[in-house]
């Protein structure tokens, strides 16, 4: 159950720079909280939870909500009232609420606020992790690189991801995710399984998801919630009443007067009625106008008219039909809740048109839906020839551009298809009139020597090193070399991306990167070279790698000397 | 393509044809050649309508003197409109192929509610109101009053039609209901009366059964249709019930009370007219003495419902003297009314025949048979003379007069049952007099007699031979066609027990059994987990469904189903059900998937198709027997046994199976469609039930799938659905279940086709 913290909306500004951003919204302040046997104050802020020891104006403990995996509390009845935060890294921090009189209350307040806050951040954190995880799983090369660089601690994970994962994309997908609403499970009410708590009571476990589902499906309940919570009752009370109410229960017949939900039931009824009277858009399912000539009252064998008075229906029957009504309504609401947001404006339009279609003097507007439905109903797609495969015609404004792809516009000289056709015909024409000038051809001996030189193994084809390396070097060395290449490539990418070095941050980074490169050379490249030597592989396989590294070092040297010059 | 059907050139508006369509046309041609009647059963979704239209239109073009008109009767308004659209397709094809202008006139006719364009009248909601309002604007005396008093409102659309509409024939073409309205708007003519006039010279008329089978309406609308017409009853599996309904009357105490007020109004009007315009009444009296037929003078707009008895039963003599004057007639009706009231004051059920009733009424209140027979005619004349504008208000007294005429005209085939209360509520007095027709052949007899060829066709007419028996006619062709399939796209399964081996059945003794209900629920739950998109489930009756839904709810089964799909349920309110249906389709459309719980014999099971993803599985919970305790049904069964030698059980099973077949057949609407058909009752496995399913379903029922458990059903269904999910292209069908013209002409294909039709 949520509860607004009593100190909410109070802004704290502390001068010390250690406290990060200058002013944060403080949602809850709890005094006399001990951490490592030290008294202090716990602050719950918009994005993090922090603790500072008594008398000092800096936080010694500060966790972003996103870093927190879960919170644990000491069981009721224990002497120490504690709250433990477990981080994603596995570390944990324990707070001990020491204020004798209000310890329990304080702890619960903190817990509940955290309960609300954590899921919001968790999603984001998880999303990021998930995204990273996904990238690693999808891309084996990246995974290898990650192993080479991060696991072996050449660079830190953050550095690795820093420009790999454009955070934008995560954010983007996140925001996208928010936009695309998750539908509502039709059985969300069924998921609230009541559990007996052993002493004649029922416990309902409500999650925020379920509450959200209830609100989205039954706007009237949301309205009631807004009206009553927290002015006239607590949230807990509200939901208790909800579950006690006949509104929640099957037949909804005996909703008492004092029940706050009786109004909801009435409104639902009204909603259902209005849905019914609005009628249906699809004339093919309109049962009212199905029959062409209904028999007049009194004709026919069916004894229909007698059922019209509800008084002689038993209570049981009434409640049964109420269940049926309720299911129809529930399903319709769930369906509508799923669609509501996506095409709200759309819906409006179609609604107005539907009312138009239904009011009978504007018959002019009615046919389209009907025509379409009729055509659909009489279509046999397999009897028809090819027309079944309906394609959309490509609407080209400039077909030339389409066939040639985008071409820089300033060069107005591009060949249109007509030009190409013309030139082809010219070439064809020329080929037809082609006569070899035999006097000017190469001598046959020269020609044959050129051919031998160009065939495999010939003079000009000897440096086909690929094949030799393939054959000479064992595959494990090859794959190791490949990994080295990608790793070096990655490090160099980081390195080169620092240029031009124009901020202090980049300066710092470039130095770090250089040392990374050196470390890499030392820890990875050297052992590899030694290994090759041990295996007597004569070919200088790592030459190119070293060249690349050297080039980077040279660049670094040049940059450093220039910087020195500037400084002096 | 152009086909040669037994020497007749048939234009078929598609590039390909199903073998069974060809076979169907062959049989149809034979029937027309023989100028006889036919009963043809062809699976739904195999293009029955277009085959019918193609052949009959070709026949009409080839032998314009043999067949002058096609009267196509269907059941529902959407159905009617579909037929006209198919016809339009065919005619467009003709026009393209022959490059001549279409000279055919085809039109749909429907009630005023669907055709009226008068802004005020058409905005009324109910058909009866529209009819009544229309009458109050177009009756001949209203129009006469308008002449002398221009402030009297009349319908300008009818006026315009009356002035010029009849001289200028409506140009040839295909007119659907909306087209008629458009045409009417353009010309300013009343589309309804235009259509009613135009059907007389139209080549093709499409309308609902009632216009031909209900004597009250048929006499007004279809009286002058040519004899050389071909009449087609499509979706005719329920035709016997339509016939019976059109001749039956129920009278409750409320009817009598309202009738009483009618009588009082009549009396007042008579005495008022007597003071002001006595000549009018004298004139009527004179006409009645001379025995002038009402029809000769009555205008089309004056009559709301015609005589309820068949035309050849209407007496062609003068109205008897005892009811000739208006006062006498009203007195007569009053006496009759009092008699009926007395009859309803009973405490036990009474059942008697028409002659018994007549004898009793003669003894008690001295009412003779002859004046009773004239009751309907006499009342019509009186209402006209009195210039009653709001004729709809007088429906109770019209009903009584119809009852009087019917009961005194037919001595056989009818029964009178007076029940003091409903069976379910024996403490609440609610007396009803049922005057019930038991012989469907009475209403349809004139149709068979009058028209040279009557075709009865539907997707489910099995067993074929029962229809000629209950409708009392001799067909020249009776055939049932199978569905040729390149892949078995229907999968009928009979589930006989639950996983706990408890038999599953809706048998009366066990239907409330907890285990049965739970097993039914489990079946639906399991299916909801494996079937994509839409599932439709049918129950045997509305009350049974309510009970089951309630106990499923209590057992938490519905909640579990909701995890898989949304649930929608048919209710007794048509508007509510329409909404549920639309939402159901929406849920299927957007991929959520839904379940529709519905009732066999309900509106959904009769009128709504669940094509493709709207119905991937149909589950029939139980055998949909009609409520056998009804006295009307018992009387009918007795009659069937005595008159037609049809055993009660045979008829009940036949009736149950045709409804079951209708329900499961809703899911398959073509060869590219596929669906599971699950019969959840062990009784379906018995030969007498199974054998009454249509052939095209029966032949896919293997011996192995006759008594499955839920688990086995799920396994088989999974397998089937996986197979069906494979891509299905036209090439797969070609040569097997889909033919080109060349393939059709090959010798062995023709031999194969000959086997498709099974003569009954």
UniProtKB/TrEMBL annotation, chain A:
Segments of this protein annotated with the region Disordered: 298-317, 340-368
InterPro entries attached to this UniProt entry: BSD_dom (IPR005607), BSD_dom_sf (IPR035925), PH-like_dom_sf (IPR011993), Tfb1/GTF2H1 (IPR027079), TFIIH_BTF_p62_N (IPR013876)
Main subcellular location of this protein, as a coarse class: nucleus
Record-annotated BSD domain positions: 117-172, 198-250
Gene3D superfamilies hit by this protein: 6.10.140.1200, BSD domain (1.10.3970.10), Pleckstrin-homology domain (PH domain)/Phosphotyrosine-binding domain (PTB) (2.30.29.30)
Compositional bias annotation for Polar residues: 303-317, 345-357
Cellular compartments annotated: Nucleus
Pfam families: BSD (PF03909), PH_TFIIH (PF08567)
GO biological process, one term: DNA-templated transcription
GO CC, alphabetical: transcription factor TFIIH core complex
Entry similarity comment: Belongs to the TFB1 family.
Protein name: General transcription factor IIH subunit 1
From TrEMBL, chain B:
The protein's required cofactors: [4Fe-4S] cluster
Keywords, comma-separated and alphabetical: 4Fe-4S, ATP-binding, Coiled coil, DNA damage, DNA repair, DNA-binding, Helicase, Hydrolase, Iron, Iron-sulfur, Isomerase, Metal-binding, Nucleotide-binding, Nucleus
Localization of this protein: Nucleus
Stretches assigned to the Helicase ATP-binding domain: 7-285
Highest taxon in the source lineage: Eukaryota
Cross-referenced PROSITE patterns: DEAH_ATP_HELICASE, HELICASE_ATP_BIND_2
One Pfam family per UniProt: DEAD_2
Keyword Nuclease among UniProt keywords: no
EC number assigned by the record: 5.6.2.3
Family listed: Belongs to the helicase family. RAD3/XPD subfamily.
Name of this chain's protein: DNA 5'-3' helicase
Organism: Cirrhinus molitorella (mud carp)
